[in-house]
Amino acid sequence: MTILDRYILKQAVVNFAFGVTLFVTILTAGDLLFRLTRLWLQAGLAFGTVVRVFVYSIPSFLIYVLPMAVLLSVLLTMSRLAAGSEVIAFRSSGISLKRGALPFFLLALWACTGTVILSEWALPASVIRLQQVVGEESALPDWLVQENTFFTDTSVPGTERVFYVKRIDREKGQLHDVIVQEFDQRGLTRIINAEQAFIGTNQWVFLNGVYYEMDEAGRVERVVRYQREVISTRQTIAEMVEARRKPQEMSFAELSAFIDREGKRGQHTAPLELMLWQKTAIPFACLVFALLGVPLGVTSPRAGKSVGIGISILIVFGYYVFFSLTGALAEGGTIGPFFGAWFGNFIGVAAGMILLWVKDSH
């Protein structure tokens, strides 16, 4: 690494730290921090608990913040170098804009690695810790208890039940809008739908629903409507709350195994496959934003921090809107899950390479 590389990288790291702090503050101050502060001051929640909830919530924000911070860092650093005529100086010395961008790609590679670590290890671990805090503190509100989650009950030997739950009422110990898939050695044996469910003494109790019994070929053999249905279990409501996970909160390996299992059961897995590929596409966005930021930073050499922040927000907003659009197309089956997750990156790389080539040729 040359002296020039170290000089650029030092400035880029400082701006990157500023970007992480800024975007975490923006994303958390509008909702999470406000609600937690109100719980601390008005509801009497212990300050230590407030800090723990905040810390365990941070990884879910950082996964999106790191790519944003890379873009802001590159824009601010390149703008400052261009405004000081330093870009002209190193280009007149025979150093191309592509070569000068190397420190930014090194920074983006570090951020990409950090995003992968967050997604694979920090986020799953923080979710478990957060659920433990939720289970310990009855004063915590329902908005901290996530909706649309699932968990498994394997407490009865030879039987596995996969629960899909719309909402959990911790105070009453009830589940609302529940779908249960029950499996044994033969495969899927029963599907239970219920308006409500709760755990009694060594048993699940389902209220107001219908269940479907399946034959060995996987066809519906019998349909039974019920007001109350009971099945045995050794699981407690506390264990259930702690274990429940969203697909987004699984590691790549965990989600891949879950998709494989759901596919063998004949379930539609395109949305899950999209989430799987998004776990690889979002970290790579760090490199895409670095590629876009270099030529855009040179284009606006007089831009201050406020302009750089504005440009970063606009680019990130456009990227994630496009990311959501292609994701929706993938979920609907119009395009494949991989393409739905990665199409925004492909467009970003193409645009960045064209802009970089244009700027480097002038």
Structure overview:
- It is built from 11 helices and 6 strands.
- It has 362 residues and is α+β, with helices and mostly antiparallel strands.
- It folds into 2 domains: 3-138 and 271-360, no CATH class; 147-245, no CATH class.
- It has a 6-stranded antiparallel beta sheet with strand order 1-2-3-4-5-6, covered by helices on one side.
- The longest helix has 37 residues, at 47-83.
- It is elongated, with a radius of gyration of 25 Å.
- The two termini are 26 Å apart.
- The mean pLDDT is 84.
Structural features:
single chain; 362 residues; alpha+beta; 2 domains; 6-stranded antiparallel beta sheet; 11 helices; 61% helix; 18% strand
Mean pLDDT: 84
β-sheet strand percentage: 15-25%
SS summary, helix count: 11
Low-confidence stretches: none
Number of domains: 2
How much helicity do the residues have?
55-70%
Strand order of the largest sheet: 1-2-3-4-5-6
- SS-based class: alpha+beta
What series of H and E elements makes up the topology? HHHHHHEEEEEEHHHHH
Question: Would you report the number of β strands?
Answer: 6
Radius of gyration: 25 Å
State the end-to-end CA separation. Answer: 26 Å
Largest sheet: 6 strands, antiparallel
Shape: elongated
Summarize the structure.
With 362 residues, the protein is α+β, with helices and mostly antiparallel strands. The chain folds into 2 domains: 3-138 and 271-360, no CATH class; 147-245, no CATH class.
